[in-house]
Amino acid sequence: MASLPRLVVLISGNGSNLQAILDACASGELPASVVCVISNKADAYGLVRAKDAGVETVQFPKLQNETRQEYDKRLANYVTTKQPDYIVLAGWMRILSSSFLSSFPNKVINLHPALPNTFPGTHAIERAFEAYRRGEIDHTGVMVHLVPDEGVDNGPALATEIIPIHKDDTLETLETRVHQTEHTLLVNTIKSLLKKSVSPSAYPLP
Fold it and tell me: What are the domain boundaries of the chain?
């Protein structure tokens, strides 16, 4: 029997999207195995989620005098030992440099709570809600994208989903809907990647 595809998940915080992946793997919905969860923050609750699921966890803080490139190279060397089929950035709050990405071409995917070319970087949901209140937009969304280089949340997109913003929405209700959409879209995108007979490199760059 062939072994399941191997996922390494990188997190920095609560890990609700990690939980969605763990649950989908446990139920058989996602035919994959999370072999390691790595956090750059020791107090990330996602590490507790991973331990509860019996998954190996690693705290991977940046050393005091370490450059970004040195950190990324050390991280890449460690992740390589896990022989991942895909590396999933699920709330990983560091921009990875080519010192990491060059080791895993077409294998690093990221989840971002906005549509392509809108609200890159942090606080994307909050910024979208503020833009809605200014009358600039009537929807936001979620995307899952490959991370080929050091660009911030700029694709190429693997999957997107539009989320309308309602008149009675508060930031909290919008955040709840975005996170629910994230969980489903991320799992479904990983599932479709694993099913494809072609590699993600077949996706056209924008």
Answer: 6-115+143-162+179-199
pLDDT digits (tens, 9 = 90+) for 20-77: 999 999 999 999 999 999 999 999 999 999 999 999 999 999 999 999 999 999 999 9
Q: What are the φ/ψ torsions at residue 205 (nearest 5 degrees)?
A: -75, 145
CB burial class (10 A; 0-12, 13-18, 19+) of residue 63?
exposed
The span from the CA of 37 to the CA of 174, in Å, is 28
CATH superfamily of 6-115+143-162+179-199: Formyl transferase, N-terminal domain (3.40.50.170)
Q: Which residues contact 179 (CB under 8 A, 6 or more apart)?
A: 16, 17, 113
* CB neighbours of residue 43 within 10 Å: 9
Which residues touch 17 (CB under 8 Å, ≥6 apart)? Answer: 90, 91, 111, 179, 182, 183, 186
Sign of CA dihedral 136, 189, 37, 68: negative
What pTM does this model have?
A: 0.89
112 included as an active-site residue: yes
Give the whole-angstrom CA distance, residue 18 versus residue 187: 10
Is residue 202 scored above 50 in pLDDT? no
Which of 112, 123, 139, 145 does the annotation list as catalytic? Answer: 112
Orientation angle between helical segments 45-52 and 16-27, nearest 10 degrees: 10
Give yes or no for a cis peptide into 31 (omega within 30° of 0): no
